[in-house]
Amino acid sequence: MLTGKTAIVTGAGRGIGRDIALMMASRGANVVVNDLGGTGAGEGADQTPAQQVVDEIEAAGGKAVANFGNVAKPEDAKAMYEQAMDTFDGIDIVVNNAGILRDMIFHKMTEEAWDSVIAVHLKGCFNMAQAVAAQFKVQASGNFINFTSTSGLIGNFGQANYSAAKMGIVGLSKSLALDMARFNVRSNCIAPFAWSRLIGTIPANTEAEKARVERIKDMTPAKIAPLCVALADPTCETTGQIFCIRNNEIFLMSQPRPIRSVHRSEGWTPETVRDHALPAMSADFYPLERSGDVFSWDPV
Q1: pLDDT per residue as tens digits for the range 114-166
Q2: Residue 264: how many other CB atoms lie within 10 Å
Q3: Least crowded by CB within 10 Å, which of 9, 127, 151, 255?
Q4: Member of which family (predicted)?
Q5: Angle CA 138–33–31, to nearest 5
Q6: What are the residues whose beta carbons fall under 8 Å from the beta carbon of 36, sequence distance 6 or more?
Q7: DSSP code for 42
């Protein structure tokens, strides 16, 4: 499916990114395996995880090169693009998977915890897209696969920084699809359910939360890779969509559209909004749900 194509996969030293890199290589892609090698909170650096994935790919007969850059730094994103061009003479696919978590209830959230998560997730996606956009335009082809989360799409406790970043990625991904469609460049989002180091850091204080974590442990990162590779296939025309994967289930997620309207020919006052508009629309208000409330059934 991907013979002759080159992919950059960020956060590919472990978990979801690792399985994507391995599967893309198994389908013929050259892979730049990026991973800073930090902790789940983004601290420290270790070149071992990225290099181990490269070694696995090469042992299986594939082609890969390790990269240890930080997606939050524009110069590191540019270096990844240059490494792909220098090593494999091209770039066709960017998988924006790198991420960190610094969860805390909002009234305790620090500016540093906010900024660090936004920097890796949202700014990191921007940096990677910006680094390759001109090349994608020149060659009139390219593919962005961006990772969002149901924590942003639906909601979750203690993840305001992460949820905001992941919803920002949805907007960025759609803008990339719109702005670059004329150059035959596609962009899609994936919200994964899979056990990872990051998921393991989420507090589970109630029995229901502990049970949900146990269910997630059965959802291996390898389940995410097939959709990612399929979206990267140059014969695929899908763009501007949001998908969710949970074990063997693939969901197409909704995107905001008007669902109800109210109108007064004389216009609105605060009082008529309160007494007419809001009650008229309230039957279609969304409840204050979390991801686990919406995806409440056991995965299949």
Answers
A1: 999 999 999 999 999 999 999 999 999 999 999 999 999 999 999 999 999 99
A2: 11
A3: 255
A4: Belongs to the short-chain dehydrogenases/reductases (SDR) family.
A5: 50
A6: 42, 45, 68, 69, 70, 71, 98
A7: S
The confidence score (pLDDT) of residue 91 equals: 98
Residues in the chain with pLDDT values less than 70: 40-42, 195-205, 208-218
> Among the options 88, 144, 162, 193, which is catalytic?
162
CB atoms within 10 A of CB 273: 13
Structural domains in the chain, sorted by start: 6-255 (3.40.50.720)
Cα–Cα distance measured from residue 246 to residue 228, given in angstroms and rounded to the nearest whole number: 14
pTM (two decimals): 0.91
DSSP 13: S
| Cβ-proximal residues to 158 (8 Å cutoff; 6+ apart), any chain | 103, 104, 105, 106, 202, 203
Tally: H helices and E strands in the chain? 13, 8
Provide the token pair at 226: 């097939």
**286 belongs to the catalytic site:** no
